[in-house]
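Late entry, evening session. Most of the bench is empty. Finally got around to the prediction I had been postponing all week. Sequence below, unchanged from the version circulated by S.P.
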Amino acid sequence: MLGLALGDAMGYPTEFLTMEQITATFGPWHKMEMPLSAGDVVRVTDDTQMALAVGVALAEVTTSPRDAGGAWGATQAIAPAQVETALRRHFVTWLRDPDNNRAPGQTCLNACAALERDIPWQDATVISSKGCGANMRVAPVALVPGLSAEQRSGIAQLQAAMTHGHPTALAASDLTAHAIWLLAHGCDLDELLPQLRLHALQSRRKYHADWLGNLAQKAGAPDPESYIAFGWDECLRALDKVTEALRSPDIHRDPCEAVGPGWIAEEALATGLYCFLVVDGYAREAIQRGAHSSGDSDSIAALAGAFAGAKHGPENWLPEWTEVLEYRDRIRALGRLWD
């Protein structure tokens, strides 16, 4: 979560700039520093704000049972309706927060406004949208202890589907959460892409009806399996782009030119993975490379930072960065709850 927020903050001022403009203002990518805003605070965007909304919602509906030896308990009993209610409440809270002034995506604004009307979320979501707003906030799902693999996938897809109803938004969010979970559990860098491809293939026709309800029908799909398979197929092609770009990696090349600009869900995942892997998983370099890019820089760097943080933990982030980070206390509170 710290890596996500730091990447988000570093990419905040570079979004919408060309590579020439970024270099002129911030220097070469490997020398970028964390930008300070008014009051010597490192400001984040809606990416971090919504990730916190997901995290706090999950904290409300999950428990942390421990046995006498201090180990986490068995798989938690958690109902989809509980998660949906908590997510709805915190998404609407974000919508009405006066600090929600960081150029949030129109899909999230429209869907959250519809959620506020207390209609079924399948009617509130923007069915056609696969913007990266779904998977840039999914990191907390991977961090909650005691969830089964099925629960993680179901929750990752539900939190995406409540605003972004396109199947690729669901699949990319599921893959993003799985990548973070794999890295937090010791996955080697050279195994990450093969493991993600395996997860995509195994999930390709698995529709989580308990979590998604009649979303596939609302989307006009011939059947639920065809609906979700379309999203996984687009994500598999995005993973192929990462693999191809890493065959002849150029650490100084614009990541968006190598993989994609990242405005849509599968590209944000792919370009974030590329930024993390092309620097051999080094934490600070991952967010510097992501922020110094011509596309959706804050979301790309946020995902690269989430991957790096999952791999290395919080000690790899500079104290002079984390101590001035906006929302640092809320992020650390989730860390104390789940670490």
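Two things to note before I forget:
Residues 2-63+76-338 form a domain with the ADP-ribosylglycohydrolase fold fold (CATH 1.10.4080.10).
Residues 224-247 form the longest helix (24 residues).
Will write this up properly tomorrow.
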